[in-house]
Amino acid sequence: MNKLIFADSAGPTFQRIYNNSHFALAALLPASLVSPQDGPIAKVADVGLAATITVHNHIALNYVISDYVPRALQVPARGGVLALSALTAVGLTKLALSGPGIGGAVKELWKKK
Q1: What Å distances lie between residue 37 and 98, 100, 104, CA to CA?
Q2: Can you give the residue range of the structural domain that contains 53?
Q3: DSSP structure class, residue 6
Q4: Cα 20–94–97 angle (5° rounding)?
Q5: CATH code of the domain covering residue 65
Q6: Is 113's pLDDT higher than 80?
Q7: Is the pLDDT confidence value at 110 over 80?
Q8: What distance in Å separates the CA atoms of residue 11 and residue 107, rounded to the nearest whole number?
Q9: Model's pTM, two decimal places?
Q10: CA distance 4 to 58
Q11: Domain count of the fold of the chain
């Protein structure tokens, strides 16, 4: 649990995960956007995006806390980030599995009415 709260300083494994999440996002987002919304490729890409976005943002926000939040407030801020990351994971997974998907939701932003 301590590694999740202090994800920015949890060691080389978390750093490697964060660095590789850039590549995963670069591959999954276009796959989700260009594949048919109800197709299996879009579903797999959307579930992958839900996980990757959550992990990427969680680690990145912990870096922000380390750099900009006063030491006395860092632990509560990290707890808030952990709660936010959990909510993000639940919301994006629900969107990916039972909604239009992450790519489908983005496409709806540009849909002509």
Answers
A1: 12, 7, 6
A2: 2-109
A3: T
A4: 80
A5: 1.20.1300.10
A6: no
A7: yes
A8: 37
A9: 0.91
A10: 9
A11: 1
Res 53 pLDDT > 80: yes
Concatenate the DSSP letters of all residues of 28-69 into one string. Answer: HHHHHHHS-TTSHHHHHHHHHHHHHHHHHHHHHHHHHHHHHS
Q: Tell me what percent of the chain is helix, strand and coil, each rounded to the nearest 5.
A: 85, 0, 15
Task: Tell me the pLDDT tens digit for each residue of 20-40.
Answer: 999 999 999 999 999 998 899
Annotated binding site for heme b: 56
Known binding positions: 56, 68
Contact 108, 100 (CB under 8 A): yes
Instruction: Give the pLDDT confidence of 58-102 residue by residue, as tens digits.
Output: 999 999 999 999 999 999 999 999 999 999 999 999 999 999 999
Residues marked as binding for a ubiquinone?
68
Give yes or no for a contact between 95 and 50, defined as CB atoms under 8 angstroms apart: yes
Amino acid at 60: A
